Structures are given as structure tokens and as C-alpha cells.
Amino acid sequence: MKPSFKSEFKVSVVGCGNVGATAAYAILLAGNSTEIALIDHNKDKAQGLLLDFEHSLSLLNYTKVTASDDYSACAGSHLVVVSAGARQEEGETRLQLIEKNRKIFQQIIPAIAKAAPDSILLIVTNPVDVLVYEALKLSGFPSGRVFGSGTMLDTSRLRFHISERLCLNPKSIEAYVLGEHGDTSFPVYSSANVAGKPLFEFDGFTPAEAKQCFEDTKNAAYRIIHDLGFTCYSIGTVIREIMIGIFRDSKIVVPLSVKLEDYYGHSNVALSVPCVLDSRGIAEVIKVPLDEKEQKQLALSVKTLKSYLD
Ligand code: NAD
After folding, report:
1. Is the CB of 194 under 6 A from ligand 1?
2. Catalytic machinery residues
3. CA of residue 186 to ligand 1 center, whole Å
4. Which of 123, 133, 194, 252 is least buried, going by the fewest C-beta atoms within 10 A?
5. DSSP character for 100?
6. Alpha carbons 238 and 286: distance in angstroms, whole number
């Protein structure tokens, strides 16, 4: 007999390719969710994943896992992770995926919103910022419940590269990448610090080092796609952390792609800025200090992304 739970937390993953499968696995291992619905238009893919997951259940916190090609399987979800669609081929930018993936979103987002009207939609499919904006329109949900993983991944990458230079744990590095999750993303070095000490006061951390750390961050996906064909583990970990933030009502501050309202004068576009994440989704957007150069970089991300909005 299957165990019953007092409090339930259902996560649906729509699109069970490299990213969706890895995220679902990370969520399964986290052990918080009581149900995971795997949904893919290729039903065999979802079904195969289900069978493989089921064989680990005797070793993990029990989680009900289902597989389907029908979006109504999202019903009752607290969180729906959307990772369906085309991915970058070598040399392709994220923004070049827009035509293919906008069509997919027009088909799937209304169906997800109908099946799970109270859910939080976490958009992962690229170009993530443009598709957050599309998903907001297509779902009719409030913007706190439709957001993208955005530059949370780039921020994690930057913190790692800086930590290697400083020989410190990446968790101790307070530095953000904001803007587009793509070629116009930018590092916020003006306020980056470790325990309040500005990064540039650390021995050997020169502007050239900082530039290289960000270049490595910005080019990470291109390099991994060249070597491996796709990225999945770091984004799977980001999705797991966002799930935990929602599940635990954690009020963690992370950069997420959200529709801006008068952020340094910018509105009607989605891109990443620091957000407070809790059980309702994005509870608050934090306006952080940006120097003149960073404000110009923010404006460039806005201009670039707006040119892709319908
Ligand atoms: P993939 O090709 O391995 O998987 C895509 C999956 O989507 C496939 O299983 C496919 O069957 C499914 N799919 C396609 N159309 C569908 C539909 N209409 N309904 C349901 N499922 C559908 O690709 P991937 O490597 O998993 O990447 C998925 C997306 O995630 C891409 O857009 C990629 O660029 C993006 N991505 C985003 C980040 C990020 O940081 N936001 C990181 C990595 C990848």
C-alpha cells in the first residue's frame, strides 16, 4: 500500500530531455516533494524515466512518480518546471531558439495554466527571459508566479570562478550576474564582496582577473555544449534549489528572471534581478545599487530583449 502524506507538494516537469530529466532526478533526491509528474510529448521518454526512477524508490523518501504526454497531469501542482523545447546547437545563441520555442509555448502554457491554475511556473526553456514574458501573457498568472531560472546559473558559475582565484568556498562569494540569461548578461562587481570586503581588495584579484572570471561564466554554456552536447547538471541543481526555496518558504534572495516594473526606469520586459523567493513564488524584487557602467549594461539587456518581444 502506498504511504499517505499529511502535507503534499507536487512538482510537474514538462519536457523530460536532458534538463528536465536531470532536474526531476535532483528533485527526487532532495526528497521534499510527495509527487513528481513527468510530462513530455514523447510519452516513451517520460515513461522510461518513470521506470528508472521507480527502481530507486526503495532507497529514497517515497515519492509518487507519474508519466504522461497529457498536460492535464499537472493538476494539483505547486510548481511546474517548463523545460520543453529546442536547445542550442553548437554555435547557436539562446535568442536564436525563439521562433521554435515560442510556438511550443503557445501550445503548452495555456494547457498547463488550465490544469494547474494555482501553480508557480518556473520557466527554464531558452531564451528564458523572452519566454517568461510569453508565459505570463499566455497563462494570465500574476508575475510573482511566472519567472525564469535566469542568471541564477550564471551567478553560480561566476561565484565558482572567483572562488578558485581567492581559494575560498564559492558560497562565501557575494557576487551577482544580472540581466539577460545570454550574451548581454553582466557581473555586478561594484558591490561584489566576501564578508563585506570588496573583491578588488583581495590580493591578486585584479580587474583583468575579474574580466576573465566573467568571460568564463558567459562562455560556459558554449564550451560545455562543444564538449558534451548539452548542459544539465548545473541547471538541474539550480532548479532543485528554487524548488527547495518554494517548498520551505525560505525567503532566499536569488537572481531570477521576472517582469520588471520601473526597475531603474525599465518596465515591460523580463530579465534577472535579485528576488525574494518564498512559497508564493517571487515575493519581492530588490532594487540593488548599480554603478553607471552596470546601469548601461542593464539598459542594453532590456533593449536586446525588447526587440524579441511580440
Ligand atoms: P532536449 O532536446 O534534451 O529536451 C527537450 C525535451 O522537450 C524533449 O524531451 C522533447 O521531447 C520535449 N518537448 C518538445 N516539445 C514539447 C512539447 N510541445 N511538449 C512537451 N515536451 C516537449 O533539450 P534540453 O537539453 O533538455 O534543453 C531544454 C531547454 O532548456 C532548451 O531550450 C535549452 O536551451 C534550455 N536550457 C536552459 C537553461 C537555463 O539556464 N535556462 C540551461 C540549459 C538548457
Report:
1. no
2. 181
3. 25
4. 252
5. H
6. 20
CA–CA separation, 142 vs 137, rounded Å? Answer: 10
- The answer to whether the CB of 23 is under 6 A from ligand 1 is no
Residue 1 confidence (pLDDT): 40
Contact 263, 291 (CB under 8 A): no
18 lines ligand 1 (CB under 6 A): yes
* Minimal-distance CA residue to ligand 1 atom 34: 87
- Nearest residue (by CA) to ligand 1, atom 3, is 17
Instruction: Give the closest residue to 63 by CA, choosing from 119, 129, 123, 11.
Output: 11
The model's pLDDT over 12-50, given as tens digits with 9 standing for 90+, comes to 999 999 999 999 999 999 999 999 999 999 999 999 999
- Dump pLDDT digits (tens) for 43-99: 999 999 999 999 999 999 999 999 999 999 999 999 999 999 998 888 888 888 999
The answer to whether the beta carbons of residues 98 and 113 sit under 8 Å apart is no
Q: What is the pLDDT of residue 77?
A: 98
Q: Mean pLDDT score of the chain, rounded to an integer?
A: 95
Residue 123 Cα to ligand 1 middle (Å): 11
Q: Does ligand 1 come within 6 angstroms of the Cβ of 159?
A: no
Does ligand 1 have an atom closer than 6 angstroms to the CB of 125?
yes
| Residue that is written with C-alpha cell 548545473 in the block | 234
Look at residue 23 and give its three-state secondary structure. helix
The CA distances from residue 63 to 4, 36, 228, in Å, are: 10, 7, 30
Categorize the per-residue pLDDT at 2 as very low, low, confident or very high, splitting at 50, 70 and 90. very low
pLDDT at 167: 97
47-50 LR contacts (CB < 8 Å, sep 24+): 49/16, 49/21, 49/24
